[in-house]
Amino acid sequence: MNIPEHLRYTKDHEWISVQEDGTTALVGITDFAQSELGDIVFVETKPAGTSLDEHDAFGTVEAVKTVADLFAPVSCEILEVNEALDAAEIVNSDPYGDGWMVKVALKEPSQVDGLLNASAYRELVGE
């Protein structure tokens, strides 16, 4: 299973990648989450401009047999939704790359420090 060292993770299986500017980030679901869900057929997120508190649902991911909520890892505002998600299967093939879901502006960048590092996430999923 792929668990990149440079990302932070939630117990709900989202990842966050803070960008170089330190104020924006990309958010998606982990390799573990996409493998547990199976073939992803649809991703729906709230639109750009939506303000979220930590743990607020920002969308859903639909697989062949189930639908799962997506939760904001930190307090943020959605700046952009990934247009590539029109082909939702990209989340299965590249969850940490082209399969990112939203780009966000961090309201409190220090919240990222409270998320799981790669080692703690490996332990959570039994890797």
Automatic annotation (TrEMBL):
<dbReference type="InterPro" id="IPR011053">
    <property type="entry name" value="Single_hybrid_motif"/>
</dbReference>
<dbReference type="GO" id="GO:0019464">
    <property type="term" value="P:glycine decarboxylation via glycine cleavage system"/>
</dbReference>
<dbReference type="GO" id="GO:0005829">
    <property type="term" value="C:cytosol"/>
</dbReference>
<protein>
    <recommendedName>
        <fullName>Glycine cleavage system H protein</fullName>
    </recommendedName>
</protein>
<feature type="domain" description="Lipoyl-binding">
    <location>
        <begin position="24"/>
        <end position="105"/>
    </location>
</feature>
<dbReference type="InterPro" id="IPR033753">
    <property type="entry name" value="GCV_H/Fam206"/>
</dbReference>
<dbReference type="GO" id="GO:0005960">
    <property type="term" value="C:glycine cleavage complex"/>
</dbReference>
<dbReference type="Pfam" id="PF01597">
    <property type="entry name" value="GCV_H"/>
</dbReference>
<comment type="similarity">
    <text>Belongs to the GcvH family.</text>
</comment>
<dbReference type="GO" id="GO:0009249">
    <property type="term" value="P:protein lipoylation"/>
</dbReference>
<feature type="modified residue" description="N6-lipoyllysine">
    <location>
        <position position="65"/>
    </location>
</feature>
<dbReference type="InterPro" id="IPR000089">
    <property type="entry name" value="Biotin_lipoyl"/>
</dbReference>
<dbReference type="InterPro" id="IPR003016">
    <property type="entry name" value="2-oxoA_DH_lipoyl-BS"/>
</dbReference>
<dbReference type="InterPro" id="IPR002930">
    <property type="entry name" value="GCV_H"/>
</dbReference>
<comment type="function">
    <text>The glycine cleavage system catalyzes the degradation of glycine. The H protein shuttles the methylamine group of glycine from the P protein to the T protein.</text>
</comment>
<comment type="subunit">
    <text>The glycine cleavage system is composed of four proteins: P, T, L and H.</text>
</comment>
<keyword id="KW-0450">Lipoyl</keyword>
<dbReference type="InterPro" id="IPR017453">
    <property type="entry name" value="GCV_H_sub"/>
</dbReference>
